[in-house]
Amino acid sequence: MFSRAPHPSLASHPVSRAIGTCNPLSTADSDIALVRGYSRELKIACDELHDDPFNSDARAQLMRLILHDSKNADAAQERLRRHQVPAVGRPS
After folding, report:
1. Quick one: which of 22, 79, 68 has its CA closest to 42?
2. pLDDT at 4
């Protein structure tokens, strides 16, 4: 008898890791999670940089988000816009 370990879901991974390592998926739920996670990380990095403009970790995080992770988040946002999925952005 074989027992298979369950595959970890996207929700079990930290958002920053999920954004950087996952390809944009075509399902609306995945796209919503990706867009919300990206928005949240972007806000946190901006808040940290606003609090301390010389915070090198916040600078590096913001650069990574803009240069690398924004492509996947932009693609997910565009798919959601095309399909007009409600509740993207701020949770109600």
Report:
1. 68
2. 44
